[in-house]
Amino acid sequence: MRPSFFFALNFIGLQAVWAACAYGAVEQNAMIGVIAAIIYLALHFSFSPQAYIDFLVLIGISSVGLLIDSMNQTLGVASFYASNESFLAIPYWLLTLWMVFAVSLPHSLYWLRHKPLIAMLAGAIGSASSYFAGSRFDALSFAEPLWQSLLVFSLEWALLLPISYYAIKRLKNSTQ
Questions:
Q1: What are phi and psi of 79, to 5 degrees?
Q2: What is the mean pLDDT of the chain?
Q3: Residue partners of 22: CB distance under 8 A and separation at least 6
Q4: Domain segments of the chain: what residues?
Q5: Which residues of 76-102 are buried (b: 16+ CB within 10 A; e: fewer)?
Q6: pLDDT in tens, 111-127
Q7: Residues near 83 by beta carbon (within 8 Å), at least 6 away in sequence
Q8: Less crowded by CB within 10 Å, the N or C end of the chain?
């Protein structure tokens, strides 16, 4: 598969799975997002030029995401739809969304790797706006005041993206 086509598939896949998760929350059927993520991840790993690295990134970033959003849920920063349907502190749809996000880091979002300040800004703004949009679809609700919850997400993600790129760089160097 041509790299530009894979890049586009990767970027569109992230957006499509996000939309499927939000739609599943609206329809009160969290499995819509989970199934979309599983289908996308199967396609991704079928065509990825670096499936092994992607798998390791998926495990690492998804674990961190599980920890971060579990902490946010436990501390009352946010409450995620369908959390009670999961043995985890966060719903399955959110964990699978973290998985899809993880495999976008070394591909369609990889351009941020050499721009740590832009990665921090993208993480801060992109995360807050994504979680906020999810709340408009009733996928989650925030603690009040809203600005404090959004600030927590912004700070977490401002740190997460640059650290993730540093870890991916180390991972790629160790597997060569």
A1: -125, 120
A2: 91
A3: 33, 133, 134, 137, 139
A4: 3-174
A5: ebbebbbbeeeeebbbbbbbbbbbbbb
A6: 888 899 999 999 999 99
A7: 73, 89, 90, 91
A8: C
Residue type, 135: S
| Residue 97 neighbours by CB under 8 Å, 6+ apart | 17, 18, 21, 33, 37
Place of tokens 């579990």: 70
Tell me how far apart the alpha carbons of residues 77 and 72 are, in angstroms, rounded to a whole number: 5
Strand partners, 142: 78
One-letter identity of residue 137 = F
Q: For residues 130 and 78, give the distance between their C-alpha atoms in angstroms, rounded to a whole number.
A: 13
Phi/psi-derived region of residue 82, left when phi > 0, alpha when psi is between -120 and 50, beta in every other case: left
Closest CA to 152 of 90, 92, 89, 69: 69
β-sheet bridge partners, residue 141: 79
